[in-house]
Amino acid sequence: MNMKKINIILTAVFATALVSCDKELDVTNPNNQTTYDFGNNESDLQEALIACYNRTRLEGSFARVGYTMDAVRGDEVWNSSQQWYLDYDNLNSPGTIDIGDQWIWRDCFHIVNRCNYVLSKVDGANLRAQSYDEIKGQALFLRALAYYELATYYQTVPLYTDYRQYSSLESMYASNATQDEVFDQIDEDLKEAVRLLPSKDKGGEWAKGRATSGAAAGYLARSLMFRHKYEEAYDYLKKIIAGDYGTYGLVADYGDNFKEGAEFENNRESLFEIQFLDYGQGGTDEEWTPVNISSNATQGHAVESNYGSQQLGSWGDLAMSPWLYNLFKAEKCTDGTLDPRLYWTAVTYEPEYSTYTGVATAAYPGGDPRSNIVYQAEITATPLSNNTQGGISIAKFTNARNNIYSTIVTGLHCGVNLRLMRYSDVLLRAAECENEINGPTQKAIDYINEVRRRVALKDLRLSDFPTADKLFEQIANVERPKEFGCENGRGIDLIRWGFFYDEARLAQISQHSAYMRNGTASTEELTLATADDYSYRYYQKGHEYFPIFQNTLNSNPNLTGNSANKNIDNGVEYLRKWSVRPIAK
Length: 585
Prior knowledge:
It is a single chain. By secondary structure, this protein is mainly alpha-helical. Helix content is 41%, strand content 6%. The protein has helices at 42-54, 59-63, 65-73, 86-89, 98-101, 103-122, 129-154, 169-172, 179-196, 200-203, 213-226, 230-242, 303-307, 322-329, 340-345, 351-355, 423-438, 442-454, 468-484, 490-496, 503-512, 550-555, 563-566, 571-577; strands at residues 19-22, 25-27, 77-79, 270-274, 318-320, 373-374, 377-378, 384-386, 390-392, 418-422, 514-515, 533-534. The strands form six sheets. The chain has a two-stranded antiparallel sheet with strand order 1-2. A two-stranded antiparallel ribbon has the order 3-5. Helix 6 packs antiparallel against helix 7 and helix 17 (423-438) packs antiparallel against helix 18 (442-454). Residues 5-23 and 359-367 have low confidence and may be disordered.
């Protein structure tokens, strides 16, 4: 069954007491199952697995803050409301704000706990070999996905890999594992998932929306690259490119990655995406927390509520930085037009959008000549992200360029699937690995050019990149921001590259994050001197990770705070193991 069409299936199992009719006869209600009774056959485990997927659609996992919190941690997104998310944009949360310090932690551990339950049962169930591999492989992937989020947000977290750990307070109150220990577990889970899961080709219709060997290999490469294991990561990336884990490629229209509907979602470019029901196809109950379990849930996400324009009905919390806008404007396509990725990344008014039609690089929905229609209203100026502060509104994973409904609908209603990993990421990561291992080579340039050709940008030439530092600069601060701008992942990149641990790099990303609070959709190029503010002005060392919620620390006597709780400079340990590439002009 296509995961996109699967409604919420609850698998929460409650402990029950035996009902005694008299002293001689005990009768057990067959409809009131326990964790011991449930999960011993394929049908039960399939339902439990769906419950694991369901937890990826919570607000703290990927339905809103679990996705957008990394975007605001990056240098291409700023907090235009100057309220909600502000402590995470500034990277100085005191550890008492539940939005980032608790919600992501809570909801990712929901995924971990359910996956652990499936894994505790799968070996004892009487399963066909194929079912065994698919069920176990998916549970391992989802657990690794949750721990990847936890490790990159919170640095040191407890490791729960055995469902029996929940049987006593002593084992449930686990202490922090080191970040290396968490990543070791992620790598182990994903390597086994690669071995067990079918490719997207072999999986066919079943694979749409589910974890496959390609998804596991892609995330494994991400995990390995976080710890600079470039050779091993490159091996997996090359196998994905060679088709060993299924057939992947770039879709012709970049915009198809951000549209709703079966013809766009789970496409050939997608390695893994979070499934949300198309707008209006779900229920009416909004499940902001995991406590509110409803069979009539909307099953949409609220990323649009943060990304969309307040002027057009959204909350106006996050905006795109002027730096990224000007990065797009700095290079035209080979036919002289704007990079179409600007259109799909930001809601800006460009005269070209009103008249430009009929060219393959346009990437405008439906070929509508009135391409500047946003929420069914023609615009002649860029809408404000926030009515008071201003800012450029973000278009990705919203209805801004899809025109499905006439006004922004805030809450958990947006049905555009969140593509967590796309094939373009495989190509640009392969280019990065090639450059790290062999220095600038034509092979690395070829990977990059494949991504650039999709949007009709001029090919890069190897002769323009005489050093590995120069090519890294192109990948890190040109190619990746334009391809993945305002998506989840930039903040993680800045950490793994060590940009918080080098004065020149920190100054660089500070300038990238500069913004104006002048009530306009400011697009001028800014410096730290000319800007009103910038995201990292208030950055405290160690707060590139989010602090563990103080109430969580209070509840678990074995848990200690991370670098953000203790204001510890992670640069010392980072620079002991790795170096930060210098800025190459």
